[in-house]
């Protein structure tokens, strides 16, 4: 699939690191480092602007290494970039660690996955088909 992109960052375009990778790393486009205190959040720009085809979205997800090593994750994860959005891709980062963390220009801060999606057409009914699970909520299917 071909996706139109404007790159106003000083970094190379996002790319897949292996032939089987689902996501591409996004890098911070910063004029100055961003210090995130414990539990603090900030929107970090990437300098990237996309034009996705209708029926596709870009999902912004945390990087597992950043989350495991530094406690940095992406809020509203996965974040969705809609096909009709034309602004800069920003990533909402939060520091869940007890110590402050500094995000530097060029740091890999998130990953982006391009995914196909459908739009639902609602059909109002008086009842839903029954299932074995029924209306059982969180944890209702047991631990095994």
From TrEMBL:
GO terms for molecular function: dUTP diphosphatase activity. It comes from the Bacteria. It catalyses: dUTP + H2O = dUMP + diphosphate + H(+). Pfam families: dUTPase. Signal peptide: none annotated. It is an enzyme of class 3 (hydrolase). The keyword Magnesium applies. Pathway: Pyrimidine metabolism; dUMP biosynthesis; dUMP from dCTP (dUTP route): step 2/2. Its cofactor is Mg(2+). The keyword Membrane does not apply. Keywords: Hydrolase, Magnesium, Metal-binding, Nucleotide metabolism. Substrate binds at residues 63-65, 76, 80-82. Its EC number is 3.6.1.23. Residues 12-142 form the dUTPase-like domain. This enzyme is involved in nucleotide metabolism: it produces dUMP, the immediate precursor of thymidine nucleotides and it decreases the intracellular concentration of dUTP so that uracil cannot be incorporated into DNA. Belongs to the dUTPase family. This is Deoxyuridine 5'-triphosphate nucleotidohydrolase. It comes from Robiginitalea marina.
